[in-house]
Amino acid sequence: DYDVIVCDGFQFAGIGSIAEENPDVKFILVDTNPSDADGNEAAYDNVYAMTFKEHESGFAAGLAAALETKSGKVAVVNGIAYPSNVNYQYGFMSGVNYANKNYGTTAECVELASYAGTDVTGANVGGNYIGSFAGVAVELLWCFLRNGHFESRAGLVYGPFNLLYGVGATLLTVFLYRYRNRGRWLSFLVGMAVGSAVEYATSWAQETFLGSRSWDYSDMPYNLNGRICLLYSVFWGILGIFWLKNLYPRMAEAIIRIPEKWGKILTWALFAFFVFDALVSLFAVMRWHARVTGTAMPGMFWNLFDLRFPDGRMQKIYANLVWS
Question: What is the Cα 99 distance to its own chain's centre?
Fold first, then answer.
C-alpha cells in the first residue's frame, strides 16, 4: 500500500474509478486530466493533475539545439500525436527558428515520422480552409436527410466552400483549444456560444451590407430575430465537440506532416485562392442585386459578371438567398 501514487502520462487518464475506490490514496497525474469510466473528464479530491506549458520547454530545447548543433540538423524524438507532445514539438521548432533569426544559426529541423498533431496556437494548420468545406458537406447531408434532395450551401462562387463555417472552425479552435483536455460539456457550451455568435453576426452583416439573407429561423422556436435559434445553436455545440475531439486533431495530424517549405507554399496558395474567390463572390452578388433592383452598373467590368454569373447560375449557387 502507498499513500501517494504518481501516474506519468496520459495513458493513466482513466484512473477515475480507481481514485473513487481508494479515497485515502493520493494520485498525481502527469500531462493530462483524470476521466471517469465513460471517458469524460472529471475532478476528484484525491487526484492532482499536473499539466504544463510544453511549448515553453520545447522552445528552450529547440534554441539550445540550434546553438549547439555541429551538423546543422536538429530534431526531437516525440511520442504519439497527443497535445502535450505536439505542443513540445511546436515549441522546439519555434526555438530553432528564433535562433536562426536572432543568432545567425542555420539549423534545419528534421521532421521525423513521429511528428504529428496540432500546434499550440491552433493557427496555420488549415482549420479555416477545411472548416469551410466541412461545413458545406454537413449542410448538404442535412438538406438531403431533411428534404430528400441536395441543394447548394456554398458561400463562394468557386468550390464547395462557405466562409461562415471556416470562420466558425477557426474561432472554435481559438476558444476551445486551451480546454482540449476538459470534458465534452465545456466543448459543447463554448461551441454553442461561439457558433451562435458567428452565425448571428454573419446574418446581420449580410443583411446590412448586401441587402439579403441566406437563412431565416423566424418560424423556429426560441429564435433571436430569425438569425439564430436554439436547434441550430445546439448543432453548433455538437460541432464544437466533434471538431475539437475528432476532426481537428486528425486533420492537423495529416497537415502537419507536410514539409515546411511545401506547407508554406500551399498555405499561401490557398489563402490567395480564398481571397480571390471571396472578392469575385462579393462582386457577383453585388451585380446580381443590381440586376434584381434595376440599378444601372455600366462598364466592361460589370458586363463580365453579367456573362459569367447570370441570375440562373447565382440562384443555383445561393439557393436560399432572399433579397430584403
Answer: 29
